[in-house]
Amino acid sequence: MVSVSKLSNGMRIVTDTDLNSDTVSLGVWVSVGARYESPEINGISHVLEHMAFKGTLKRSALQISEEIENVGGIINAYTGKEMTAYYVKVLKEDLALGLDIIADILQNSQMDAGELEKEKGVICQEINMQNDTPDEMVFDYLSETAFPNQALGRSIAGTTEIVRSITSKQLLDYMHTQYIADRMIISASGNFNADSFKDMCELAFSGIGNHAVQSAEPAYYVGGDKRVEKANEQVNLVLGFNGIPYTDKDYYTASLLSGVFGGGMSSRLFQEIREKRGLVYSIYSFNSPESDAGIFNIYAGTGEKEVVELMPVLCDEILKLKGTITDTELMRAKNRLKARLLMRSEAISTHAEMNATDMIVHGRIVPKEEVINDISSITAADLDRVAERIFASCPTFAALGPIKHVMSYDEICSRLGYKG
Predict the structure, then answer these.
(1) E strand intervals along 100-212
(2) 3-state secondary structure labels for all residues of 67-100
(3) Is 222 helix (H, G, I), strand (E, B) or coil?
């Protein structure tokens, strides 16, 4: 049973009880991420997520790990463009410990200078690893080109230079000014008493307050071209368009469109470009949404010679979409999307995350029946309309690798019929 309420300080709390479960998943989701950073501190949200586990007033970094692992639990966190999450998974009898640790790291983290210097090295290695992974790096290039000079376009991890410059005081100031009650969702799922849990949260998070904060800057999609020559074996490329936000009425229509176009082995891109022509190992499309913006991505990894044939075929497949989507393709895309949503919702460990995300994005828990009904009502004409909406936008193109034979940006625009 799902219930939503508020603590006296304004923090929202979502409880999703399942008395047949032996476990509890709980955490705090904060509607703050890389999009809330100025250029000078790009990456600080990610550094803060790392440092929250490096010692509090009553626990060292080792004690945080030991206490949760002594009871067989799991503790972790992640940072996005608009959200940061801290969560634990424990047996039902260890709920109080899990809650106490999460509350502790979010209110009493010390950001010790010595620990920070060590963790900077870890984070810089993470950044370097990503820089050495072309099929990840090319998406950063796409994002910064689609949303230039905007926080939304910058990397979540930042740069090694900025990470090295961040101080303990900056981390504490950022945490105290951005992690406020109105932006924080406590979410728990599993076997526990909801009323007792709320009382526990009231005490555990009493140190979280509220004050005025600056909101994220509005997104402005631009589009454009970025290419980086690198002596790799493959050309990694992404062709992007102005996508559909989470809150848009066409969000699920865009998901279905992506499913038909490049969402699996039966999709048009996979069948035409990999199976029939053998031009790629990997090709797929997906809509990458944020609260008020998004990018519709088409990714491919191909050889230096094969890219000559790939790009015209890819553009032609985009032009073929409108008016040709069959009932069979639409049904298959609907069934795949429904199955993915329902399979995910069956796992108790994902309930807390899904509920928290709903509250941040929509301000309410969206029943799965509502989502299934929305998906079921979408027609081929809806996909045609959204395809026209997406592909009429200015293309964004990013390529990394041996790129000298890649079609020019002007030729891509011309081939797609985009005139600016």
Answers:
(1) 184-190
(2) HHHHCCCEEEEEECCCCEEEEEEEEHHHHHHHHH
(3) coil
* E strand residue ranges, 234-353: 234-242, 280-289, 294-303
Q: Are strands 2-6 and 12-17 parallel, antiparallel or unpaired?
A: antiparallel
Q: Which residues have C-beta within 8 Å of that of residue 329, sequence separation ≥ 6?
A: 260, 268
- Domains by residue range for the chain, with CATH: 2-204 (3.30.830.10), 224-416 (3.30.830.10)
3-state secondary structure of 298: strand
Residues classed as catalytic: 49
Q: Which residue has the tokens 């990013």?
A: 398
**What's the first-to-final CA gap in the chain, in angstroms?**
51
Let me know: does 273 contact 296? Beta carbons within 8 Å: no
How far is 283 from 263, CA to CA, in rounded Å? 9
How many whole angstroms from its chain centre is CA 99? 24
Annotate 33-79 with DSSP letters as a single string.
-GGG--GGGTTHHHHHHHHTTS-BSS--HHHHHHHHHHTT-EEEEEE
Partners of 6 in beta bridges: 12
User: For 132, how many CA atoms within 13 A lie in the half-sphere containing its CB?
Assistant: 6
In percent, the amount of the chain with pLDDT more than 90 equals 93
Q: Where are the beta strands (DSSP E) in 217-375?
A: 224-229, 234-242, 280-289, 294-303
105: tokens are 């790291």
pLDDT band (50, 70, 90) for residue 349: confident
Inter-CA distances, 96 with 209, 357, 392, Å: 22, 23, 53
> Phi, psi at residue 191, to the nearest 5°?
-95, 100
Does the structure show a pLDDT above 80 at 214?
no
Closest residue by Cα to residue 141 from 48, 212, 240: 240
Q: Looking at the whole model, is its pTM more than 0.85?
A: yes
In one letter, which amino acid is 128? N
